[in-house]
Amino acid sequence: MYDWLVVQLGRLNVSLKLVVGFGILLFLTLLVLLSGLHSLDNQAGRGEQMATITELNDLSQQANLARLQFELGGDRSQAERVEQHSTKMLELIEQRLKGSDIDARQLEAARQAVSQYREAFSALTRAVDQRTQARSTLVGSAQSALQAFETLDKQLFDLLAEQPGDPQLLHSAQAVGQLHQQLLLVRYQVRGYVFEQSASAEQAAFAAFDQLRDTGTALQSQLPAIAADGLGAALKDLQNYRSGIEHFRDGVNATVQARQGLNGASEALLSASDRLYDDTLKRNEAETAAAKTRQILIAVLALAFGFLSGWAINRQIVRPLHEALELAERIAQGDLSQGLSRDLNVQRSDELGQLQRVMLRMRESLSQLLGHIGGSVSQLATAADELSAVTEQTRAGVNSQRVETEQVASAIHEMAATVQEVARNAEQASAAAQQADQQARQGDQVVQDAVNQIDRLAIEVDRSAEAMELLRKESEKIGSVLDVIKSVAEQTNLLALNAAIEAARAGEAGRGFAVVADEVRGLAQRTQSSTAEIEGLIAGLQRGAQEAVTRMDDSRRLTGSSVELTRRAGEALGVIARTVADIQGMNLQIASAAEEQSSVAEEINRSVVQVREIADQSAAASEQTASSSTELARLGNELQLQVGRFRL
């Protein structure tokens, strides 16, 4: 069975093996995921159920609290809250829990408990209404009875007023007064019963009623007719009062029964919700345990299959790969014998079997190829040795020819270089002479322009000297005008001082004139100051003008000398230009002859260079051939050594 399974697995493709193995692992992983999601969904559902049950308990507690507040205060809004909470509890049971997996019997028990609670609360509401109505009746009946006894007292007192000495009337009045006191005691007992609502208070109240009724009935026959009728009316009102108490007692009993029903329904609802919560919690724990079991089982299956997959991959993939790798390693080391090929399982039909068969064919092909290469390499080595000897002789002759050609080429090249240098120097000298002639002509023209410019400059200098002389004379005139202004300012200052003195003598009458005199004096002083400053500026201007006139005279004399020197420089430049023109003509003749000689030398040099290049090419070819022959012989020997490494 095991061998058959190994053979069947060997026929499958490697990709199919991997796909099947990893597919099953992914399937198990998907099962784990789905199981976890299912458990999470169940947990979420259980959580919602437990939240609903908790909400049901909260609503039950809120309903009980509202019911107690309704019993204590009779607030109808609290009764409405009880109805709302009970309705909400029924909705939770019908809508959220009925469609779940909770036990239907427990749900029905909870629903019946809520229904019983609603019915009991309805009975409690009716009982409370009955008590309230009975209390209202009690108040009216008590007032009527009190008014009847007060009327009876008044009647008896009226009769006593008419018959003050009648002992029977006096005894009747005293007896009626005692009945009135007993009625007040009955009201006190009834009030205690209304507030306490206990059996003892009830017995005390009804005992007081019975005593009052018996006493009144016995007294009725002893009273006068008019008083007996009043007492009969009072006893009738008293009976109505007793009926109200009995009606209130029925309401109290109904309240007690309804409260007992509410307590029983509340306990039943609480018990049902507790059972629902416990059942949900148990099912949640059971579901958690089942989920853990499923997860562990699937994980164990995944681990087992993973182990089996690893073992199968090792047997079906890794082991054949190691065998193929060992064969490749032996081939790489040069072992082409058939020692390992006999151990290979080449009957496999998957990719690894194909790889092993290809490796075997490659080994056989390499063995045949290396056998052919070994024979060819021996022949190649012999031919390479012969070619190397012939190439060595050819290379020696070519090297001798190249040496002679290089000597001739070197001599021709030196001669051509000398001729080219002469021609280049002649051309440079001609160009320099031409440039010198051109610059000499330009210098002559520049000198002529400078002479003309200097002449114009001399004329302008003369004009400037005349203008500066005129400026000096005008500044002297300005100085005389400033002297006049200074004199006027001094006189104005003296006049202002005299006016100030006269104004001071005049006292108050001359105060305004004194102010004007002070202003005029200040203006005269500022005029003197400004005149002094202007005088200083004019003096500086006169000195500058005098110095400029002196400078102009010197410049005019230097300009005349410059004109004469410039004329002499122009004549010398003319002589230089003519000499340079003669040199340029001779340089042109030398350059022409040198160019012809250089052309001939270039032709000879090119021919020699071509011969040398051919010799170089021949020598290089001989060198390359010799090197190739040597390399070929070396490669042949090395190839023989390499082929000898393989064991065929």
TrEMBL record:
Transmembrane segments: 20-40, 296-313
Gene3D superfamilies reported in the protein's UniProt record: 1.20.1440.210, Methyl-accepting chemotaxis protein
GO BP annotation list: chemotaxis; signal transduction
Coiled coil regions in record: 90-127, 419-474
PANTHER family linked: METHYL-ACCEPTING CHEMOTAXIS PROTEIN MCPB (PTHR32089), METHYL-ACCEPTING CHEMOTAXIS PROTEIN TLPQ (PTHR32089:SF120)
Methyl-accepting transducer domain segment(s): 376-612
Lineage: Bacteria, Pseudomonadati, Pseudomonadota, Gammaproteobacteria, Pseudomonadales
Main location: membrane
InterPro entries: HAMP_dom (IPR003660), HBM (IPR032255), MCPsignal_dom (IPR004089)
Membrane topology term: Multi-pass membrane protein
Record protein name field: HAMP domain-containing protein
SMART domains referenced in this protein's UniProt entry, alphabetically: HAMP, HBM, MA
Domain HAMP: 315-371
Domain of life: Bacteria
Sequence ranges assigned to domain HBM in this UniProt record: 45-288
Protein species of origin: Pseudomonas nicosulfuronedens
UniProt subcellular location: Cell membrane
